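Need fresh eyes. Consider my entry:
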Amino acid sequence: MRGLSRASAPAKVILFGEHFVVYDKLAVVMAVDLRAHVSVKPRMDNKIIVESIGMGLQGEFTLDGVYKPIIGEFGEDKLRPIYVAAKRVLDLAGESIGLNITVDSRIPVASGLGSSAAVLVATTAAVGSLLEMNLCRDDIFRLALEAEKIIHEKPSGVDPAISTYGGLIAYSRSGGVMMLEAAANLPLVIGDTRIKRDTREMIHRVSELRRLYPEIFKGLMDAGDRVARLAVEAIRAGDLRALGHLMNINHALLYAIGVSNTAIESLLWAARRAGALGAKITGAGGGGCIVALSMPEDRRRIAEAIRVTGGEPLIADIAHEGVRIEE
């Protein structure tokens, strides 16, 4: 066993297919160059201490899951998935030891950029490395996905997949991960509405719409799946203008299922007026972020338009590397 292990995993933007991916339709996802970092040390007792620097939370778990706060009174819901990720690795290794787990994430929380999944992937990798288990990426993905079920009842799996594998992927529940090669760079600008949203709540809202209007919802899902498949072709061909058109169409479908709002629409139209080839929600909606595709020379103008409109802009590039051990 090592005395210290560190791992990191990237954030993501969903370019196509959020919400519909929950129902086994295709999603296209890109890892971006923001990372969650996790460090793990063994303890002499049987306590698992989890600290999140960014959220100002620290809590203590026994090996059988009993929680006691240390810093921050209401942190259990946020810290428990990290404990679960670590405990699953310990169980797989047949170990019963205590751990100090420290999370230092640069990814905005509850914004649609996959912060929780990136932390769970990095935690899984760091604990596995500490125990010298040589977990492969498929193992890390599977274990992190199980832990994510603590956060979302029926996660699609797309968030831990992209944080694990990095780069650009097409993903569906039944088809798994397919790595994509883009024939051109995909210059992106992310715009954060600064409105925190609850992914589980948004998924429930969409599920209720599906229950009320099953035939209409099926048509929307099928259209979303077709848009995502055409997007894969455009990515492989390096056709940014077609990709932008498809992003706008995808957003219209997301608007139709009720996950947009005034703040999101304001940022979208600011980005489009400033020259974005296409712009849409990324993630669950209801707040969080939008993502805009642009020509390289237009990114700063689009970022400024988002800022002036009240959002927080971020110029984002692809993270080719997924989860990694930080030596």
User: Anything to note?
Assistant: The chain has a mean pLDDT of 94. Residues 67 and 76 are 7 Å apart (CA to CA). The chain has two domains: 5-181, 188-316.
